[in-house]
Request: fold
Amino acid sequence: MEKKEKLIAKLKSNPKYFTFEEMKSLLEALGFIITVTYLAKKSP
Reply:
């Protein structure tokens, strides 16, 4: 079984314990590009 199928099976069987890292891996396996944007507060 492929990693993608294992992650989908875990998400379907027990979504409460599906971590963000696992979701990120699944989305990347499905072709999504994950980017992180940090917003910095401007000082007055």
Observations:
- Residues 12 and 28 are 18 Å apart (CA to CA).
